[in-house]
């Protein structure tokens, strides 16, 4: 996943940095709570850095960090001590910065003295607001020009984006402070062992009007919207109890992160979608949000519904080469910053993705299989049909029956699949593929979209329509296996290039083809063998590119790294074709990696072999938390539980194939088919309670998933 200008990767945020978020606003700082403009730190609102410097000084010296905690996703507590004070061997002053983010920022400063003598000192908060666009910050292009601070009639301090087209500004509430151009200052006098507290509030403004952040300054924090949303989320999500406490911690962290990454449409406050990741992708992304919603169905099906509804509202209606909008096309990303709009071809919505459109139909079909499709789903079905029209019209540029991409301008994404870095699609010798490019996994997504549309037609009693879409899927599967399979290599080409040549690199993309079911049964064993070979499987997960390929680099973004979401899809594909042990190995590897990262999987990590480095090696620009990485453990758990619903046909298949390391697993409050179910796996016994009466439970894999046949009913 990458945003606009994916060719330029994000700089590392910094070791020990702390990020808190609520909705699409977030704050990233150093371990002591300070924000400085020369690092990718800041308070961000609407894709704009509204605070670029927020540095606490005591008698001119910065605070030394002792500890930082994030008890809630939107809340951080920084504990430190004042720097060296003249005439003292050790400082007697401790500092606590209790910070909440909710569009703006609330920070309560508390300084305690452990001296037996009175103390007097100066407290200063250095404040700058450069109103830099998030892409300028990400790519190190932010000018960092501070804006003057002025006191308004109400005694608050204002900073405006003077000379800029951006209508944003900010207001700082700091009672009893004095203000200079770039600092808010207090003179503090403490009695022996005394303390001092001051609340600072930073509130964004739009066109001079303050954006409501919740209760008044003096109001209790527990009544803020972030708190209410988190409590509501926690009360509704499933509860996992696992024999292995470390595995349970991973699942709970995933739930927590997905809850924190939810953003809400102000015009439809009941709709939640998942932002792609912190810090650079706190926005709606078509592909990322759809795949995350798919993998998070066992956690909250309303994420899928909200994502589908929001994407349908923003579905393309016209032809616009600048934004790459086309009728029926599903967007790549939405951004809100003013200068961001210039980067997006003059619009806030950019459509340059090849896979979000078929994935829209896939997720709609899976939501129906999960029993989460609302009764008034007509608008979503119409959006699905418009998406399918795009697939067969603009998606298939040359009419060869495959969906391919080539950007429609000189500044859009060169590669428009999930590996969207400029060098993400290459031949075995390392040379780059030229567009138009037809990716193998995209053909699989289209195949799955056709099957999903057939299911939706069957649900509405349109038997002949269902047969038509199934026939399209059958035809595509035949063409795909003829054109993409490389017999002498034993794997599928990652793509066909502009000259219809097979792009012959051995890549993880073909694992997505297993997931969709487009792979011929007789070819699946060789695909599984390639994916799990030593050149692909590191011990932690499957690399994006095999280690003997010309473009391989274990520390690259897409050419040899390990992506958790990619592996979750590969594991699901392996399980679909009956490769149980292989799916278990990926599952165990990723859960072990998550535990090495404190329970949270990052966006990606380096593709070094586990035998070479006994710890997973950090990729420095990786987002964390990141949406589809957070959803990956949930998807893996569903895969090894082999929980396979088909509510439209009144059936559910559950046949756990848990790795031995998992032990017993108990899930409570799982949302399913309009009800809440419990799943208990203890040894060889599986029990499900709360299943609606109209559903028939099968304690076996759906279709013939045995290793001998490698088959599964579509």
Describe the overall structure:
- The protein has 714 residues and is α+β, with helices and mostly antiparallel strands.
- It contains 15 helices and 35 strands.
- The strands form nine sheets. Strands 7, 8, 9, 10, 13, 14, 15, 18 and 19 form a nine-stranded antiparallel β-sheet that branches.
- The radius of gyration is 26 Å and the shape is globular.
- It starts with 17 loop residues before the first strand and ends in a 16-residue tail after the last strand.
Strand content: 15-25%
Low-confidence segments, ≥5 residues, pLDDT <50? 2-13, 215-223, 338-346, 704-714
The tally of helices reads 15
Q: What shape does the CA trace take?
A: globular
CATH topology of the domain at 18-208 and 220-228: Beta-galactosidase, Chain A, domain 5
CATH top level assignment of the domain at 18-208 and 220-228: Mainly Beta
Radius of gyration: 26 Å
Q: What is the CATH architecture term of the domain at 18-208 and 220-228?
A: Distorted Sandwich
The percent range for helix content is 25-40%
The CATH homologous superfamily of the domain at 18-208 and 220-228 is termed Glycoside hydrolase, family 65, N-terminal domain
| Mean pLDDT across every amino acid position | 88
Q: Give the CA-CA distance, first to last residue.
A: 28 Å
Task: Summarize the main sheet.
Answer: 9 strands, antiparallel
Multimeric state of these chains? single chain
Counted beta strands: 35
User: Which structural class do the helices and strands define?
Assistant: alpha+beta
């Amino acid at each position: 996943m990458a945003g606009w200008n994916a060719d330029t990767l994000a700089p590392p945020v910094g070791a020990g940095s702390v990020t808190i978020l609520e909705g699409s606003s977030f704050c990233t700082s150093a371990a002591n709570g300070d924000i400085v403009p020369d690092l990718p730190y800041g308070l961000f609102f609407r894709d704009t850095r509204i605070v670029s410097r927020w540095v606490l000084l005591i008698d001119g010296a910065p605070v030394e960090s002792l500890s930082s905690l994030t008890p809630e996703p939107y809340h951080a507590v920084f504990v430190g001590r004042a720097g060296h004070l003249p005439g003292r061997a050790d400082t007697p002053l401790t500092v606590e910065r209790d910070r909440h983010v909710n569009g703006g920022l609330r920070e309560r400063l508390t300084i305690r003295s452990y001296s037996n003598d009175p103390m007097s000192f100066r407290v200063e908060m250095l404040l700058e607001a450069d109103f830099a666009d998030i892409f300028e910050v990400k790519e190190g292009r932010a000018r960092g020009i501070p804006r003057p601070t002025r006191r308004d009639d109400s005694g608050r301090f204002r900073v405006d984006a003077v000379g800029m087209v951006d209508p944003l500004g900010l207001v700082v509430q700091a009672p009893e402070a004095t203000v200079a151009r770039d600092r808010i200052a207090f003179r503090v006098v403490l009695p022996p062992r005394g303390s001092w507290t001051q609340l600072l509030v930073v509130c964004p403004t739009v066109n001079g009007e303050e954006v409501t952040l919740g209760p008044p300054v003096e109001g209790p924090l527990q009544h803020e919207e972030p708190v209410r949303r988190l409590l509501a989320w926690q009360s509704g999500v499933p509860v996992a109890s696992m024999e292995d406490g470390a595995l349970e911690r991973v699942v709970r962290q995933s739930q927590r992160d997905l809850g924190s990454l939810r953003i809400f449409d102000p015009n439809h406050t009941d709709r939640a979608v998942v932002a792609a990741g912190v810090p650079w992708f706190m926005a709606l992304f078509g592909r990322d949000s759809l795949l995350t919603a798919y993998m998070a169905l066992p956690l909250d099906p309303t994420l899928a519904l909200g994502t589908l509804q929001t994407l349908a509202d923003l579905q393309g209606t016209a032809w616009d080469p600048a934004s790459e909008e086309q009728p029926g096309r599903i967007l790549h990303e939405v951004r809100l910053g003013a200068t961001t709009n210039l980067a997006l071809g003059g619009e806030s919505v950019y459509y340059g993705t090849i896979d979000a459109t078929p994935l829209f139909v896939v997720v709609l079909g899976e939501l129906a299989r999960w029993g989460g499709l609302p009764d008034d789903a007509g608008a979503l079905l119409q959006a699905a049909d418009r998406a399918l029209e795009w697939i067969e019209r603009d998606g298939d540029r040359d009419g060869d029956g495959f969906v391919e991409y080539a950007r429609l301008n000189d500044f859009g994404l060169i590669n428009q699949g999930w590996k969207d870095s400029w060098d993400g699609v290459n031949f075995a010798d390392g040379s780059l593929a030229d567009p138009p490019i037809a990716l193998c996994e995209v053909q699989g997504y289209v195949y799955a979209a056709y099957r999903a549309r057939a299911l939706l037609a069957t649900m509405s009693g349109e038997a002949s329509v269902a047969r038509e879409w199934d026939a399209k899927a059958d035809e595509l599967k035949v063409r795909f296996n003829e054109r993409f399979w490389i017999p002498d290599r034993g794997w599928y080409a990652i793509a066909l290039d502009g000259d219809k040549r097979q792009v012959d690199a051995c890549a993880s993309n073909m694992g997505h083809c297993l997931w969709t079911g487009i792979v011929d049964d007789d070819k699946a064993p060789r695909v599984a063998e390639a994916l799990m070979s030593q050149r692909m499987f590191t011990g932690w997960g499957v690399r994006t590119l095999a280690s003997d390929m010309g473009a391989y680099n274990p520390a690259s973004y897409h050419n040899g790294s390990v992506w958790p979401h990619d592996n979750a899809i590969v594991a699901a594909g392996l399980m679909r074709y009956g490769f149980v042990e292989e799916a278990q190995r990926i599952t165990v590897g990723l859960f072990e990696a998550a535990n090495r990262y404190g329970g949270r999987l990052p966006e990606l990590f380096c593709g070094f072999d586990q035998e070479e480095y006994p710890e997973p090696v950090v990729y420095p620009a990786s987002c964390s938390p990141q949406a589809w990485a957070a959803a990956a453990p949930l998807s893996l758990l569903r895969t090894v539980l082999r929980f396979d619903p088909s509510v439209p046909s009144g059936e559910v298949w559950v046949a756990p194939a848990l790795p031995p390391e998992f032990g017993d697993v108990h899930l409570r409050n799982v949302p399913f088919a309009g009800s809440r179910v419990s799943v208990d796996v203890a040894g060889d016994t599986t029990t499900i309670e709360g299943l609606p009466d109209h559903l028939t439970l099968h304690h076996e894999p759906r279709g013939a998933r045995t290793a001998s046949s490698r088959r599964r009913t579509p």
